[in-house]
Structure formats: structure tokens, C-alpha cells
Design goal:
mainly beta; Methylamine Dehydrogenase, Chain H; 2 domains; five-stranded mixed sheet; 2 helices; 29 strands; 8% helix; globular
Length: 365
């Protein structure tokens, strides 16, 4: 038995010695090339047209609209909004302050908002002078384009996530991370809590939109839930006739008749899931699933007339798609590669648009 193990040991040592003496690749043989991945993705990730058309059957073209980085300072941009004409822009950065641009992003200056704050959302009136902004613990208001600010908290509960404003700044919405929604109809003088009849106890609101006239509210659940619509500033609500979903965004036209709701796609083949975009042209009474490129969108915006819809992906593809005919055809916009779009703003006529990059820049078209 000992001799058997001795033979095995001798053979093993011989094999190891032979392997060490023999080079892994002979000098005459071609050396295998090792291709390392690039340090960063290409600046303009092209859409997979064949896959998109197979998935949602929507015509897709590359538009001539090109997005450009503005000279805004490099910050962790988290929220943005603009005036109706797109000339005045206001943007909020995490752990920083709020900046404004009076010339569609050509120049930027700091506002008088507090610094080193966890800003989560910002919205402005049609003229850009009245601004509402939320940070982790407070809601702030400015009536002079950001020169000065005042705390205007609807409640003492911290954790504000979203704010919205009507065109004249008289109607304001504020949403907490817990899904509690508050409204003011006198420019922040008084606040009242409003809520749609949620279907499930755990269903919390996470997305809100307010029409420019201040009457229509669209609210959606951030977990498995529904979309709700109110045409009387939250007094009465109706549930949209759509399946359950995790909603990434909602939008509404100026008069409250046209709406868009963006559903988050689950993991799995997109063709086996409901289309992510749903639109309504009758005030939310009926909804239609829109054929659209099947990207995992995280942002959605709508022009004042409801004709132009713009969607942007998050960290997956950093792409922007837009339609001017309700989703019958789509255009892919050439956008410089970013680290993830965090917010989006669109002018009333849909011609000026702004995107915030979570780790760096603000882009405009």
C-alpha cells in the first residue's frame, strides 16, 4: 500500500515539474489578445431599434434634437423646474443649495436658499418668480425668484419628497415620503391634508402632478398600487381604470384633460408585461396603453397642451425619448452619457427641456 502511494506521489511531482517547465503559450503560437472594457460607456448609447419595435411595435427615429450641458457647477443635482417659457430655471442640489438661471441655463447663480441641505424637490410658477422647494425637514417658499426664502411647513412631520405649483403659484402641493399629501390654495397661507381612497393600507402615494390651473391632481402609488385623479383640488377622487403597478411618474396638461402615467417595468421579458406608458385624453375617465420603446424609464413630462410627452431612463441607458403625437411615433434624442437622470423639466410649449444628472451636470435642449 505504501509503495502504491509512493508511485502516485512520484507521478504527481513529475506532472507538476513538467507543467512548470513548459510555457503556457509557445513563442511560435499566436498570443491571445485580452480586450479590457472601456473605462466608461460611449457618450451616445444607441437604441436597439429592432428590439424596441419587436417589444412595443412603435416607430422609432433618431431626432435632430441634441442636448447640451449647461455651465452649471458640478453638483449632485436632484430636482429642476422651469417657467412656462423655459427662460427661468431653478435647480436643487443635494447637500448644497438651490440655483437659478435667468436665461435658459446659459448662466447660473446661487439663490438665497439655505446651504448644506438635503433638497428633494423644487417647483415654480409660470413666471418663475414664486418658488416652492422641499428638503428633508422643511418646505420653503420664495416670492422673489429665490432672493429670499421663508419656511412654510404644512406639518411638523419631516421627510418631504415632492412639491408642485400651479401657474400663478396660488395652489401648492407637498408630499411626504410616507405618502401624506398636503394642499394650499392661498400660496402657502394655510395647508390641509388630502388623500384619495387608497385601495390597500400599505399603498402610499409617491408621485404627484398638478395642472397649471390648479384644479386637477394626479397621484400615484410608489409601490404596488393605483393612479388616482381629482378635479376639485382633492375634495373628491376617482381611481384610474388601470392594473396595479409601481408608478415612476405622472403628468397632466394645463387644463387637466390630458394625463400620462409611467409604470415601472418588472424584471422579465418586456413583451410579457403591460406597456409602461398610459395616457388619458378625457380627464382620467379612460386610459390607453401607449406603444413605446421598452426602456426602463424613470422620468416623464408633458407639455401644457398634452401633445408632447418626454420620457427619460435612469441609470440603465441614460436615453431620452419624446413623442408629439400621443405615442404613435417616437424620437430618440442624442444625449451625452450621464450617471443617471434625476429630474426633468419642460416648458409649456414643449420646446425647451432640462435634465439633471445625479452626478454632475444639467443638460438643456
Amino acid at each position: 500500500m505504501a509503495q502504491k502511494w509512493l508511485v502516485v506521489l512520484v507521478v504527481f511531482v513529475a506532472l507538476v515539474s513538467s507543467a512548470q517547465a513548459k510555457p503556457l503559450f509557445s513563442s511560435s503560437a499566436p498570443q491571445p489578445s485580452i480586450v479590457l472594457p472601456p473605462p466608461f460607456p460611449p457618450p451616445f448609447p444607441p437604441p436597439n431599434k429592432r428590439f424596441l419595435r419587436q417589444a412595443w411595435h412603435a416607430p422609432l427615429s433618431v431626432s435632430s434634437g441634441t442636448w447640451y450641458p449647461t455651465p452649471a457647477p458640478s453638483r449632485t443635482w436632484f430636482a429642476i423646474d422651469c417657467s412656462a417659457d423655459g427662460r427661468k430655471v431653478v435647480a436643487a442640489a443635494l447637500f448644497d443649495t438651490i440655483y437659478r438661471s435667468p436665461d435658459s441655463g446659459a448662466t447660473w447663480v446661487q439663490t438665497g436658499a439655505p446651504t448644506n441641505s438635503y433638497w428633494t424637490s423644487v417647483a415654480c410658477s409660470a413666471d418663475g418668480n414664486r418658488i416652492i422647494a422641499s428638503e428633508e425637514f422643511n418646505v420653503w417658499l420664495s416670492t422673489n425668484a429665490g432672493a429670499s426664502w421663508d419656511i412654510n411647513d404644512p406639518t411638523n412631520v419631516p421627510g418631504w419628497s415632492q412639491v408642485r405649483s400651479s401657474a400663478d403659484g396660488s395652489v401648492l402641493l407637498a408630499l411626504t415620503v410616507l405618502g401624506w399629501l398636503y394642499i394650499s390654495t392661498d400660496s402657502g397661507g394655510a395647508w390641509a391634508q388630502i388623500s384619495p381612497p387608497l385601495t390597500f393600507p400599505s399603498e402610499g402615494l409617491a408621485q404627484i402632478a398638478l395642472s397649471a390651473d390648479g384644479h386637477t391632481i394626479v397621484a400615484a402609488s410608489g409601490i404596488e398600487g393605483y393612479v388616482y385623479v381629482s378635479h376639485d383640488q382633492g375634495t373628491t377622487w376617482m381611481q384610474a381604470e388601470m392594473p396595479l403597478g409601481v408608478w415612476n411618474g405622472v403628468g397632466v396638461s394645463a387644463d387637466g384633460n390630458k394625463m400620462v402615467a409611467l409604470r415601472s417595468l418588472n424584471i422579465g421579458p418586456p413583451e410579457l408585461q403591460p406597456p409602461p406608458l398610459n395616457v388619458s385624453s378625457d380627464g382620467g375617465n379612460s386610459w390607453t396603453a401607449v406603444s413605446a420603446p421598452s426602456y426602463f424609464w424613470g422620468l416623464v413630462g408633458m407639455s401644457a397642451d398634452g401633445e408632447t410627452i418626454v420620457t427619460a431612463t435612469g441609470r440603465i441607458a441614460n436615453s431620452v425619448y419624446r413623442t408629439s403625437n400621443g405615442g404613435k411615433s417616437w424620437h430618440f434624442d442624442q444625449v451625452p452619457y450621464g450617471n443617471g437622470w434625476s429630474d426633468f423639466a419642460i416648458s409649456a410649449n414643449g420646446r425647451r427641456m432640462f435634465l439633471t444628472d445625479f452626478f454632475g451636470h444639467i443638460y438643456c435642449q
